[in-house]
Amino acid sequence: MSLADARAIQPSLEAVEAEPEEDARTLENIAAWCERFTPVVVIDAPDGLFLDITGCAHLFGGEAALCGQIVTRLQAQGFAVRAALAPTPGAAWALARYAHISAQERGEEALLRAALAPLPVEALRLDEDAAALVRRLGLKTIGQLLAAPRSSFTARAGARAMLRLDQALGRTPEALSPRRPAPPVFALRRFLEPLFSVENILVATERLCADVIEKLDLRGAGARRAALHLFGVDGRDRVIEIGVSRPEREMKPLLRLLREKLNRAAENLDAEFGIEAARLDITRLERIEGAARTLAAVEEAQAGAEQLAALVDMLSARLGPKRVLRPKLHDAHAPEKAGAWSAALHSSPARGEAYIPRDGVMRRPLALFSQPQPIETIAAVPDGPPIRFRWRRVLREVARAEGPERISGDWLGGLPTRDYYRVEDKQGRRYWLYREGFYGDSVARPRWFVHGLFA
Left (φ > 0), alpha (ψ -120 to 50) or beta: where does 195 sit? Predict the structure, then answer.
């Protein structure tokens, strides 16, 4: 109704302008606060949250105690809260919004059916049109919908309602998207009293590391990235992130990096009211090969792989992960894109031996120009190698030529085909040239470039 009609009925009505963006921001803040109870939090806009508490309830005295604690603490912050525990998201949504009391159903389907039966059909998360259609058919409660003939009802435009009913009862799976990807491995600790000093936080961090290492052992994997979440009494979430250059499953390296980060961030933690809980998430892990190595590789003769990895981790923690780089090969058609630099923490050292031809002659140069340089050529035949070419205003006579090595264009990027030639001039200098395009394929003439030099 209009505001004037509403005030005529209730003169003391207080009207406030709606602010959907502020409501969404507040819901996001509440979701971030709820991560101290579980890492899997799903936002159900505009006014709801799903929390997957599987494996977390025992830390809070059980499921009922956890649910009660969430409700009590949110009410203390000034929010009106209703919560329910159920084995499916649809059942939890229905019980939280339409049950007269806070119901916690975790039994068999028969118990869940009994809890949902008296609720109205709107509790199945139906839109207005679908709910109106069901009511026009004379079905007002979920119990009546359960008793209706399934085949005939579904045929009469009730497919949406039956899908929601199956999701609520757990017959059909329902996928939810958490606000953050759920970590494959995590450990959570709550404290009887808030922690204020970095030393006490480090002690708690050591125990978290021990917990995650035990889980990593069961998976046969090591951590590549980790995030330490410190949940303050003030409701704020402080995050300390680390990364390592190789899968790590030892206490000392992980704790050393976390200590380094915490010492650097100590001034910005601002834990005025203390830290009430902490969670260590392994956001990325990799399998650790169990094969024992008997001989060290040549490149590890001066420094072991563990020492190099420790050095990379320490420099990345101090200088930043984007400032410590290592060369990386990529599977790319264009040779200029085959080699690049990548962050040492986010890439693994190159493995395997370089391919060496049997005759010992390298088919490609080790050094390439950052941008191929155009040249002018004269060839005996249109699609053959050049007999002379001009580069940097100097004319060079070709004594020998080998090729072509054809590299097809990338069909995604639309790059033209290239024919590469290994060319040697009369002074003994060797070049890597290529022709871009073919004669007769288009109006534009093919172009020639020098891409690299052989030593």
Answer: beta
Domain ranges within the chain, ordered by starting residue: 21-169, 185-287, 367-453
Cα 33 → chain centroid: 20
Query: How far apart (Å, rounded) are the C-alpha atoms in residues 81 and 97?
Result: 10
User: Are residues 363 and 452 in contact, defined by beta-carbon separation less than 8 angstroms?
Assistant: no
- Whether the Cβ atoms of residue 276 and residue 69 lie closer than 8 Å to each other: no
Instruction: Indicate the class that CATH gives domain 185-287.
Output: alpha beta
Residue 23's pLDDT band, with cuts at 50, 70 and 90, is: very high
In this prediction, residue 292 has a pLDDT band, given cuts at 50, 70 and 90, of very low
CA distance 138 to 154: 14
Which string of DSSP letters, residue by residue, matches 389-430?
A: EEETTEEEEEEEEEEEEEE---TTTTPPPEEEEEEEETTS-E
Residue 5 CA to residue 256 CA, distance in Å, equals 67
Pseudo-torsion of CA 105, 109, 112, 114, nearest 10°?
-140
Q: Give the number of other CB atoms < 10 A from CB of residue 371.
A: 9
Task: Give residue-wise pLDDT tens across range 151-167.
Answer: 766 666 567 788 888 89
Report d(CA 374, CA 136) in Å as an integer: 76
Nearest to 194 by CA among 137, 269, 292: 269
Pairwise pLDDT comparison (184 vs 414), residue with the higher score: 184
Separation CA 415–CA 409 (nearest Å): 5
Q: CA 305 from chain center: how many Å?
A: 28
Q: In angstroms, rounded to a whole number, what is the distance separating the alpha carbons of residues 81 and 95?
A: 13
Assess whether pLDDT exceeds 60 at residue 104. no
pTM, whole model, 2 decimals? 0.60
User: What's the token pair of residue 17?
Assistant: 């302008």
Alpha carbons 359 and 395: distance in angstroms, whole number? 31
Average pLDDT score over the chain: 84
CA dist., res. 277 & res. 33, Å (int): 11
Identify the H or E element spanning 275. strand 275-287
The pLDDT, as a whole number, for residue 192 is 87
Structure tokens at 143: 């119990």
